[in-house]
Amino acid sequence: MHLRPFDDVAECIAFLEKPDRAVWQKPDDVIAALGLKGSETLVDIGAGSGYFTFRFAKALQHGKVILGV
Fold first, then answer.
1. Is 65:42 a contact under the CB 8 Å cutoff?
2. Would you list the domain boundaries of the chain?
3. Is this model's pTM higher than 0.90 or not?
4. What residue spans of 1-69 are helical by DSSP H?
């Protein structure tokens, strides 16, 4: 399997959303380490499938998440 570019979007999403990703990437710890207050504006560059984007949005209930390309 080649990784760039993915010929199939579903294959790309499946790769980015692997169940073991949380084990090695610790997304909840990453969000907590940022010390967000909940009202910031955050730019998610290279958001991919939105793995972190959705977590950022949950943490920024009074803020904003911008997808950067």
1. yes
2. 9-68
3. no
4. 9-16, 21-25, 27-34, 53-59
